[in-house]
Each structure stands twice: as structure tokens, then as C-alpha cells.
Specification:
This protein has five helices and eight strands. The protein is of the alpha+beta class.
């Protein structure tokens, strides 16, 4: 679907729900995902089937590096009239960390959402305690603000940090 050198992103297949669930429940991934995120294969199957019915509005994608599944990411329409998509569920297997897989996948994903699906703006929200995700988002998106103490997580209120991206931002970044 979209490629950046040895990195390729493509829509997830229903048969990959087990892989996605195993990543979502991995001890080094799960603590950083939204509490309401899907965790079991059946929920991911439903998500993938929904995306098959409405591919312009929803999608779960698999990130591959040199042909090996390295992670996943997703989007859903947030505002149809203004062509805004929310990006979520960015998960990179710990074995692929430290290689900027998420950064490269984010650029490829953004190009796909802008060029192929016609979105105007992408939005991403990250928990304020998720240092790795914040560092990624700072490199791939534009920081727009903080929703202070917005979410109850781990027995305390935590911030949600808001990021956005337009096609112009992507072009200005050299892509």
C-alpha cells in the first residue's frame, strides 16, 4: 500500500487478528495503550471487518519491515465534512524498537491518508506519561496542546497530549 525503503504498510487481514492481539497485550506495549483499546482477537476481527466495509473511514494497518510484521496502526474518521482522521493504536513490537519504525510508518501512513484517502488533517493523542510515544509524536506530528488531567489511568489522572498533522506539515518536513 505505502512504502518507505524496507518498510511497508498495508491493511490488516482478518487472519492477523491473533498477531495484533498478541502485540496489544504484550507486557511492553499494553501499559501504554488506551484503556478502551481492543485487546482480544475477536475485537480486532470486528475492527478489520468494519474497515473492509468502510475502507475510506476506518482502517487497521500492519507495519512490515523486510517482510516481517513489526507493528500496527489504525485510523478512523473523526470529521467527514472537514476530512479529519484520528490516528491511534500505534504499536511496534519491542524487537523492532530503536530503528525509527514508528516514525517511518507514520510518514508512510500520513501520505496514504492524505494522497489515497483524501484526508486534510490527522490527529493523534498520547498519554502524558508515555515518554516513548511522546518522543515519536514530536518527530512525526505538530504538538498542539495538552488536555490536563483528562484520563483516569493507573489510579491517577493523566494528561492527554494532542498532536496534529496536515499535508503541508508533511511537505515542509521534507517528505
Amino acid at each position: 500500500m505505502s512504502q518507505d525503503g524496507d518498510l511497508h504498510i498495508r491493511r490488516a487481514l482478518v487472519e492477523e487478528a491473533d498477531f495484533i492481539a498478541s502485540l496489544a497485550t504484550h507486557a511492553d506495549v499494553e501499559p501504554f495503550m488506551a484503556v478502551v483499546s481492543a485487546k482480544d482477537p475477536e475485537a480486532f476481527k470486528e475492527e478489520i471487518e468494519r474497515a473492509e466495509r468502510e475502507p475510506e473511514h476506518y482502517g487497521r494497518y500492519v507495519i512490515e519491515v523486510e517482510g516481517e510484521r513489526a507493528g500496527t496502526m489504525a485510523f478512523e474518521v473523526k470529521n467527514r465534512r472537514s476530512r479529519i482522521a484520528g490516528v491511534y493504536g500505534i504499536m511496534v513490537h519491542p524487537g523492532f524498537r530503536g530503528r525509527r519504525v514508528a516514525d517511518r510508518a507514520a510518514r508512510a501512513f500520513a501520505r496514504h491518508l492524505f494522497d489515497d484517502l483524501g484526508y486534510h488533517r490527522l490527529e493523534l493523542e498520547v498519554y502524558g506519561f508515555n515518554e516513548r510515544a511522546l518522543a515519536h509524536a514530536e518527530r512525526a506530528y505538530v504538538r498542539e496542546g495538552v488536555k490536563r488531567k483528562a484520563y483516569w489511568r493507573n489510579d491517577e489522572w493523566v494528561d492527554g497530549v494532542i498532536f496534529g498533522l496536515t499535508q503541508e506539515d508533511l511537505e515542509e518536513g521534507g517528505d
